[in-house]
């Protein structure tokens, strides 16, 4: 089966944008997918369906999702047929969401969280949670995030239910991730030293993982 040069669609994490991907070295053209405004009470799967409409399915493509973007990429597999799905610092099944996260997100408190709280994280807390040495970029991304979108996403994540594991899935995760700790499954993730933002802090290692995984997956697809 002949496969042309695929496009790579990049889906960023919660409160983030395409800047977190800028250090990756990818072998194929990459296209960041900007977030679209969620509809009232919309779940992650329905949101992913609408976001899928921004992708041209007539040409071969690959999905790369970071954190929340990884969950969206998984859900997109219900509506699209990517050559591969690469999940970075994310989870695949809803049961893998850490218990403390689920309790917080289902507590009903998210709508009442102050908007300024999402944009003015103390540096010490950011360093502990994200393990990032790039505080300047991280602070800029968080400051420019949309609190309304973040609140919607947190509520939708708390209600998310998924057991589907996409075909040709690659998981890349940081061993010291304090946001979404990895879960050992039948398909073990590729583990790297680093925290939640390995896509930026360990971009060369992540790029190597992506390159190696796509070489293997696309070779199988051609058979």
Shape: globular
Order of helices and strands: EEHEHEHHHHHEEHH
Strand order of the largest sheet: 2-1-3-4-5-6
Main beta sheet, described? 6 strands, parallel
Helix count equals 9
Task: Give me the secondary-structure category.
Answer: alpha/beta
Strand tally, please? Answer: 6
| CATH level-3 fold name | Rossmann fold
The CATH architecture can be named as: 3-Layer(aba) Sandwich
**CATH class descriptor name:** Alpha Beta
Overall structural domain count = 1
Give the fraction of residues assigned to helices: 25-40%
Mean pLDDT reading: 85
3D architecture notes:
The protein has about 220 residues and is of the alpha/beta class. It has a single domain, classed as Rossmann fold (3-Layer(aba) Sandwich), CATH 3.40.50.1820. It is about 40% helix and about 15% strand. It is built from nine helices and six strands. The chain has helices at about 45-50, 70-75, 100-105, 115-120, 125-130, 135-145, 145-160, 200, 205-220, and strands at about 5-10, 30, 60-65, 85-90, 170-175, 190. Strands 2-1-3-4-5-6 form a six-stranded parallel β-sheet. InterPro entries: AB_hydrolase_1 (IPR000073), AB_hydrolase_fold (IPR029058). This is Alpha/beta hydrolase. It comes from Croceimicrobium hydrocarbonivorans. Keywords: Hydrolase. One of its GO terms (molecular function) is hydrolase activity.
């Amino acid at each position: 089966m002949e496969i042309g040069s695929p496009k790579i669609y990049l889906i960023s994490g919660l409160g983030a944008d395409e800047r977190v991907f800028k250090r990756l070295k990818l072998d194929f053209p990459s296209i960041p997918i900007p977030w679209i405004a969620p509809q009232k009470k919309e779940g992650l799967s329905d949101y992913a369906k609408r976001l899928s409409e921004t992708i041209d399915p007539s040409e071969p493509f690959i999905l790369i999702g970071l954190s929340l973007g990884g969950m969206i990429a998984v859900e997109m597999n219900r509506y699209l047929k990517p050559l591969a799905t690469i999940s970075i610092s994310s989870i695949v099944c809803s049961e893998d969401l850490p218990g403390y996260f689920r309790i917080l997100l289902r507590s009903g408190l998210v709508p009442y969280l102050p908007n300024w709280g999402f944009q003015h994280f103390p540096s010490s807390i950011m360093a502990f949670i994200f393990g990032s040495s790039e505080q300047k970029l991280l602070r800029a991304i968080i400051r420019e995030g949309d609190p309304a979108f973040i609140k919607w996403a947190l509520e939708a994540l708390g209600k998310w239910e998924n057991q589907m594991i996409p075909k040709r899935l690659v998981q890349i995760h940081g061993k010291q991730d304090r946001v979404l700790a990895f879960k050992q499954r039948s398909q073990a993730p590729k583990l790297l030293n680093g925290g939640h933002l390995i896509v930026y802090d360990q971009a060369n290692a992540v790029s190597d993982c992506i390159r190696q995984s796509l070489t293997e997956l696309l070779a199988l697809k051609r058979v």
